[in-house]
Amino acid sequence: MQYTSQELFVGAIEGVPNCTSDTRELHIWPKFMLMVLLQGAQHFVVDERHFEIDAGTEEASSPVVFMLNVAKDSRLRFFNDSRTPLRKVMISAPLPWLQRLFDTQGEAQKSVLQSFFSQHLAHFSFEPGQHIVQSAQKIMHPPPALEGELSSLYLRAQGLDLMWQSLLTMLADRKEHLPAPTLMSLRYCDRARDFVIGNLDRELTIGLIAREVGCSASTLQRHFKTHFGMTVFDFIRQKRLEAARTALADDGIPISHAAHLAGYNNISSFTTAFRRAYGVTPKQVRV
């Protein structure tokens, strides 16, 4: 895929041990790079600084998210050391494009972000939770029914979500720069999100989720929308619809079963919600 220095890039690699066979020194422009490595290893050098990221093998994988700020025109070279097939998502965003992100943050968060993006080759890595892993998998295997501009919009949406969640993780890690209530509520909401994703087949209530993450129901309801832009129940509905879509596209389950999986007793209501979310009907997605 070709792109310019002014565009957001979202892409994926799967099944080959290296992202390129070209081991010559390459020129790269200033940008923010985010890699979600689900399997395999990467070794590269930027301006004589080595970076090595290893997510393990298929039998013993340990996913990792790696973020790198390239603040000036630089030289990049890959070393093809690994023979393990990669499962990798890559996102690149031009630095001027990220200025809009700073403008939406509070002063404490803005200070952390500006510090990171002002340093050439500043980097941060962490072990991702279920939500980030699932978002990466959606980029690697988008719904086959989406084509053309719809497919591009889908990939951009997933890429933006990945970038947002990863930067939130960095903000929480650098907790000395954040007010304690902000950090604590973010941790509660992260736990709640991962609990929901892992328990979509259960009857989920605010009380149950709050008990699992160790906070009150009112605290969870108040802060979840602040951090993630939707209510807890909207998030549950979204994830159940995604599970239904995946089952339709990958397994070809009956639409009535998909409706039940998404939490709907009425196929008509399920179809309406599905079309509103994805722009197509369940029948169009079903293999």
TrEMBL record:
Pinpoint the HTH araC/xylS-type domain residues.
Answer: 190-287
Which organism does this record belong to? Nitratireductor aquibiodomus
Q: What is this protein called?
A: Transcriptional regulator, AraC family
Known SUPFAM superfamilies for this protein?
Homeodomain-like (SSF46689)
Molecular function (GO) terms listed?
DNA-binding transcription factor activity; sequence-specific DNA binding
Q: Respond yes or no to whether keyword Hydrolase is given for this record.
A: no
Q: Does the keyword DNA-binding apply?
A: yes
Q: What Pfam families does the database record attribute to this sequence?
A: HTH_18
Keyword entries, A-Z: DNA-binding, Transcription, Transcription regulation
